[in-house]
Amino acid sequence: MTTRYAKQHQPRQVRRAFTLIEIIVVVTIIALLAALIAPRLIGKVGWAKESVAKSEVRSIGTAVTMYVTDTGTTLDDSFDLEVLLLPPGEGGGPQGPYLNKAEDLIDPWENLYAIRVPGEVNYDFDVYSIGPDGHAGTDDDISN
């Protein structure tokens, strides 16, 4: 008798599911938030890449100055930034390598940084990135 009584008064498990209306409301809210936030985030990504490129251009410029000072050479238009990656015994400067890895010569848009001797912005040389458009001499170029 006890088992029969216990079975009769056990609470039923109520299974609650989301209604179609609730799901549509949630999806709509997420879509609205994404539409408002996504353009701002995309703009920040471009700004962040530009900021990284500016920092890397200054760093490479400093490495070039250190190389020139250490070796006592003068720059000409045949100077290759890859010499900054070489240790002293392989053609680099006596304090080299001046950059840690080959990726240090690649900008955030996957283009190689370049050097211009003599410089257009600076007197002796400019280290620059061709920017997001991939073309040299345009307004989006980033120089030291």
Give your account of this protein's structure:
- The protein is mainly alpha-helical and 144 residues long.
- The protein has a domain at 50-143: Glycoprotein, Type 4 Pilin, CATH 3.30.700.
- It contains 2 helices and 3 strands.
- It has a 3-stranded antiparallel sheet with strand order 1-2-3, covered by helices on one side.
CATH level 3 topology of the domain at 50-143: Glycoprotein, Type 4 Pilin
Helical content class: 40-55%
Give the CA-CA distance, first to last residue. 91 Å
SS-derived structural category: mainly alpha
Order of helices and strands: HHEEE
Spans of 5+ residues with little confidence (pLDDT < 50)?
none
In the CATH classification, which architecture of the domain at 50-143 applies? 2-Layer Sandwich
* Gross geometry: elongated
- Count of individual beta strands: 3
Percent strand equals 5-15%
Global mean pLDDT = 85
User: Looking across the biggest beta sheet, what order are the strands in?
Assistant: 1-2-3
Largest β sheet strand count, sense and barrel closure: 3 strands, antiparallel
In terms of topology, how is this protein built?
Blueprint: H1 2-8, H2 20-71, E1 114-116, E2 126-129, E3 142-143
Which key phrases capture this entry?
144 residues, mainly alpha, three-stranded antiparallel sheet, Glycoprotein, Type 4 Pilin
Task: Give a short overview.
Helix content is 41%, strand content 6%. The chain is mostly helical. The protein has a domain at 50-143: Glycoprotein, Type 4 Pilin (2-Layer Sandwich), CATH 3.30.700.10.
